[in-house]
Specification:
Blueprint lengths: L10 H12 L2 H22 L2 H5 L8 H17 L4 H46 L4 H12 L1 H10 L5 H9 L5 H11 L1 H12 L7 H31 L5
Helix pairs in contact: 2-5, 4-5, 5-8, 5-9, 5-10, 6-7, 6-11, 7-9, 10-11
Length: 241
């Protein structure tokens, strides 16, 4: 006589499915892409690096200005502003010692934020994309010898800063070793750029020439190490079956 009343789906089941969809690896990866695109677009539109290079607030001085610079430095590296520009600005604004401390703090902060974003939002999805031989071998090296590998990447610049951060985030490397290796490995090149920035008004001074020489030599050495590592990873990776 009476038609059966259709059974309503439990609200809890619907909410569970939605939460799983929102927390799926590809949803988190999409959020990561959106965050990075937003950061890069903001940097291109507002060019905040000009504030660091020439328009630093005059009312800020001393340690307070250096701390604010370090925070801005970290945020700008997440937005893909090149670190050499920021290191030069640190030296020009604060001198060698304070500039180096602010630049290193910003370097570790920016690397930590990028690593966290990559680990939380992109690791699961990005690992499924590591199909190539070189990428698979790099993932294995970072997972087994993370501290030593990141230290080498920072000592011999050849891979962009942001790329190294997100590559390490997709591995099984721990957070503390990544930050420690980043801080220690970034000292030489960061110091060279900071010294160059602080001595930019005297381009013929011995300190400026020594800093520029170190930058050139380390850049060439980094390119050579990256080339050799790439070919070694390609040889050591077993062929696809």
């Amino acid at each position: 006589m009476f038609d059966p009343v259709p059974t309503a789906r439990p609200a809890g089941a619907t909410a569970l499915r939605r939460s799983k969809a929102l927390l799926s690896p590809w949803s988190r990866f999409s959020l990561l892409v959106a965050v990075l695109l937003g950061a890069a677009s903001t940097m291109l539109l507002f060019e905040p690096q000009r504030l660091l290079a020439s328009g630093w607030p005059q009312q800020l001085t001393g340690s307070g200005a250096a701390m604010l610079f370090g925070l801005a430095y970290g945020a700008l590296t997440v937005a893909f502003v090149p670190r050499p520009l920021l290191n030069l600005a640190a030296g020009a604004l604060f001198g060698t010692q304070t500039g180096l401390a602010a630049a290193l703090a910003g370097t570790v902060l920016g690397a930590g934020v990028s690593f966290m974003l990559g680990r939380v939002l992109g690791q699961d999805a990005l690992r499924t994309l590591l199909r190539g031989k070189v990428l698979t071998a790099a993932d294995g090296v970072l997972s087994r010898h993370g501290f030593r590998s990141v230290l080498a990447l920072r000592l011999f610049p050849g891979i962009p800063f942001a790329a190294a951060n997100y590559c390490a985030a997709t591995s099984r490397m721990g957070y503390p070793p990544f930050l420690l290796a980043t801080g220690l490995g970034s000292i030489p090149n960061t110091a060279a750029y900071v010294i160059a920035g602080s001595e930019a008004a005297s381009p013929t001074s011995p300190l400026f020439l020594a800093a520029m020489g170190f930058i050139v030599v380390s850049g060439l050495g980094g390119a050579l190490v990256a080339w050799r590592k790439r070919h070694r990873l390609g040889r050591d990776t077993p062929p696809d079956k």
